[in-house]
Amino acid sequence: MSRRVVVTGLGAVCGLGLDWQTMWEGLVEGRSAVRAWQPPGVDDFPVKYAAPVDDAAFEARYGAGDGMDRPMERRVRFGLAAAAQALADAGFAETGAPARTGTAVGSGVPERDPYELLHAVGEDGQPSWATLYADRAALDRASGLFCTNDALAAGIAARHELRGPALNFSTACAGAAHAIGHGFRMIRRGEVDAMLVGGADSVLNLPTMTGLLLLGAPSTSELFGNRLCRAFDRDRSGLVAAEGAAMLVLESEESARRRGARILAEVAGFGSSLDAYQVTAPHPEGHGAALAMSRALADAGVEPDRVDSVNAHGTSTPLNDPVETRAIKDVFAAGEHYRRLAVTANKTMLGHLIAAAGAPELIATVLSVRDGVVPPTLNLENPDPACDLDYVPGSARQQEVSVAVSNSFGFGGLNASLVVRGYEQ
Amino acid sequence: MSSEIPATGPAAVVVTGIGAVLPTGRGREALWEAWHAARPALTPYRDPYVRTRKVTHFGHVPEELERLGRDSVPHKLRKFGTSFTFNAMLAAQDALREAGEGWQGIPEERRGLYVAQDDSTELGVAAFHKALDRSRRDDSSQVGVELQRVVAEAFGNAAAFNPFTVIRALNNNTLAMVSIAERFRGDCAAFVQDAGAALGALQRAAFSLRNGDCDTALVVGAGSYNEALKLAGLYRAGHLSAGTHGSDSLRSFDAERDGTVLGEGAVAVVLERAGDALARGARPLVEVLGAVLRPALDSGVGPATLAENARGLLAAHGLRPEDLGAVLADGKGTLHHDAAEAELLRALLKDSRVPVSSVRPVLGTVGAAGPLAELALAPSLFAAGELPPIAHLRTPPDDDTDFVMGAARKRRIDSVLSLHGTFSGFAGALLAKRPYTT
C-alpha cells in the first residue's frame, strides 16, 4: 500500500508569533525574532542574543487553557498550544479526527532548573536527598507527566484523545524532521490515517545554554545586535538559540478528501542518514546531508531538476553552512541545477529551535509551495565564498515553488530531509 | 512445526544477533540463567552523588562489566559518552559479533540504526555538583546562601563543566556513538519514551527493513534510572519499593508488592530480512512479528482497550491469544501498574490458559532496554521448552490468569507476547515467534 500524504493543519508558537499565520507573515516580511537576551537571574552570561517566546503574550493567549497551569516544562507548554492549534486548523473539531490518528513529536534535552539542581546540594556541599525530595514533594502528585522527555507526546494524546501510535523522537536538531518523516511513512504505508507531527523545544535555560556554550555552538558576538544570525554570511559566528513549537497534521489523501479538508500541500518524500563521522562536526564533504536529500527525492520519485527551493538547515555556524552548500551542490549537480535553486535559511529570523527546528521550517516550506513565495535569508551582507548559492538575501521572492526540500541536521551527524510539493488531485 | 505458526518467509524480519549488558551480567545467557534460577540481580543502591534511605535497591550493571564497556569504546569517543552509552556500545558489538561477519558486507549506507534511550542522566545533579564543587573551591562557604550568585558562578565558569556536557546529555548520544563506532550511515531514528522507546525503535526498524529503506537494522536500547531528580520524582509518585524484602523486593503481581526496583542496562539486536540472513549464512534466532505502542492508563485508556490492541497485533499475524506459547508480563511490582496489567491479562487471555511469567523481579525495571531484554530471552524459551516462574510470587491475583509460580513450566513455546508499560503513560506489546526456515 502506498498512499499520498497531505498537510491539512498547522500550528506554531515561536518568537515571531503565537500562531502559524503570524509566523508566516513575519517570515515573508523578513522580521527577526532575535533580540537581546540573558538567562533568568543572570546578567553577565556570555551569550547575549536569543529568540524567545513572548511569555506575557503566551500567558494571555494560552495560559488559562485546559490544564496549562500544571507544572510542566516550557517546551511542553508550547507544544500543547501548537498541537491544539494544528488540530483545530485541520478542522478536526468539526469533522472529528480519523479513528486511526497518532502522534509523533521531536524533543531535546530535558529542561533543568538550576535552582532545583542547586537545592539538591546541601550545606556540606554534598547532594542532599532531603532537600531534593522536598522540592519534588511540592509538585502535584498527579502530575505524572512532569519532566520526562515524552511528556509532550503523552500530553497531546491524552488531551486530544488520539489513540493511535504515539512516538517521541530524540535526534537532536533533526528531531522534529525525523518525527515528521516517520509519521509520513506510517500514513503512506497505511499504518494510520492521520498523524499530528512536529516538535517542541526550549534550550533557553541556564544549564542547557551553558552546555551549548561550552561546545562553542552559540554565537557570543555583540557586533551585529539582532542581526546576529547570519547564515551563509562571512561573518557568521554560531547559532542563535530559540524556543517554541510547531505542529502539522498529516493525513492520507483519502481521509482528507473524505472530510472535505483544506489541503495545503503534499509531503512526498523523506530521507534520513547518519554521517558516522564525528560527534561534534558534520562530515566535511557533506556526505550524510547529501545522502538524506538524495533519499528524500528518490522516495518522492522527484528528479533533482524539478526542485525549485531548498529550506536549508542554515544554522549560521562556521561548519554547517559551507558543508550544507557543498551537499546541495552535490545533489543538484546535474546541469548545475543548484544555480537555479532558491535556498532560504529561516533560522535567520526564527533562531534555532534545536529539536523543534524542522517543524516551523517545514511549515514555511509548505506555505512557500502554497503561496509561491520564498522567505528571505536575513543578514546575508557579506557572502562567504564557500557559500555560493542563491540564498534569497534580504527580502522574500515571489516565484512558483512546485517542489521544495526541507533539511534538518543534528549533532552527532543525524540527517533528515523532506520533500514537499503542491497538491494536485 | 506447529500448525498454527506459519513458516518464516524471506521478507520476514528476524533477529540474527543479540548483545546484552544488564544487571544480570553480559549476554542473553546470563539473563536467562538468572531468570531460570529466580536469582535477582538487584543490589543495594549505590551512587557517589546521592545519599538516601528511600531508594534501597537498584539493578546496577556490575562494576567490572561497566569497566569492560568503557574499555570497549574507541578512546577518541570516550569523552563524549556516559556509562550507559558505553554499555550500549558493548551490547552492539556483541550483537554484531553474533550476527556473523557477513553483515559487514552490507554497505554502510544500507545499515539502519534505531535507538531507544532513557531520559538523559548527564545534565543532572551529578554534573551540576561536579561543576559547582570545582567552581567554588576558592569560596566554599557560600553554598545555599546567595543562590543567584552561586548559580551564576557555577554556570559562568566554563572550566568547571565537562565541555561535552550537552553532548553527553543528548538523548541521541547512543545513536551518534554507535553509528560512528560501527559505521552505520543509513536510515535512522532515536526515541526517548521509557520502555516504549524500544517498541518504537523495533517497529520503525522492522518497517524500514520491510520497505527497503535499509538492508540491516541494529536496534539498541540503553539507559539508567539512576539520576537523582528522576528517582525523587518516581519515589514521590509512590512507584518505588521500600525494600523490605532486600533483593527480593520486586514482587510482580504478588499481594505483598509495594513498588518496583529500578535498574539500568543495554540490549542490542541485529534485525534482517530472513532471506538476506539465510543467504549470507546467518542463523535466525527469533522472528519479530510486530509491536504496538499506544497512550495508556494515564491517558485515560483502560486495560480493555490495551487488550484489544494486543489482540489486534496477534490477529494481524493470524494468531489468537490461545495460540501463544507464553506471555511475558511487564510486572513492575507497583500497586497501580500490576493491578491494571492483571486486568489487561484477564481481558486478553480469558480462558486460554496461556501461562504468564515476568523477568522483572530478577532484572528490575530497566527502561529503554526492557522490551529488548524480553526479546533476548525468546531464543532460550524456544530452545528450553520451559517458562521460568515469576520469582517471589506467593499470592497472585485471585483470577483465572495462569501465573507461573514456584517451578518452571514445561511447554513447547513457539511464540511469545511481551507486555510493557511506562511511567509516563504509554503501553505496548511485542510479538515474536520461533523462526521456521528451510
UniProtKB/TrEMBL annotation, chain A:
Molecular function, one GO term: 3-oxoacyl-[acyl-carrier-protein] synthase activity
A Gene Ontology biological process term: fatty acid biosynthetic process
UniProt entry tagged with the keyword Transferase: yes
Domain Ketosynthase family 3 (KS3): 2-422
Pfam families, per the entry: ketoacyl-synt, Ketoacyl-synt_C
UniProt superkingdom: Bacteria
InterPro entries per the UniProt record, alphabetical: Beta-ketoacyl_synthase (IPR000794), Ketoacyl_synth_C (IPR014031), Ketoacyl_synth_N (IPR014030), PKS_Beta-ketoAc_synthase_dom (IPR020841), Thiolase-like (IPR016039)
Keywords: Acyltransferase, Transferase
KW Acyltransferase (keyword) present: yes
Family as reported in the entry's similarity comment: Belongs to the thiolase-like superfamily. Beta-ketoacyl-ACP synthases family.
Name under which the protein is recorded: 3-oxoacyl-(Acyl-carrier-protein) synthase II KasA
UniProt lineage: Bacteria, Bacillati, Actinomycetota, Actinomycetes, Kitasatosporales
TrEMBL record, chain B:
InterPro entries: Beta-ketoacyl_synthase, Ketoacyl_synth_C, Ketoacyl_synth_N, PKS_Beta-ketoAc_synthase_dom, Thiolase-like
Keywords recorded for this protein, A-Z: Transferase
Coiled coil: none
Residue span, Ketosynthase family 3 (KS3) domain: 10-434
GO terms, biological process: fatty acid biosynthetic process
Domain of life per record: Bacteria
Gene3D superfamilies, sorted: 3.40.47.10
Pfam family, one: Ketoacyl-synt_C
Listed GO MF terms: 3-oxoacyl-[acyl-carrier-protein] synthase activity
Cited PANTHER family: 3-OXOACYL-[ACYL-CARRIER-PROTEIN] SYNTHASE, MITOCHONDRIAL, POLYKETIDE SYNTHASE-RELATED
Family: Belongs to the thiolase-like superfamily. Beta-ketoacyl-ACP synthases family.
Protein name (record): Beta-ketoacyl synthase
Species annotation: Streptomyces mashuensis
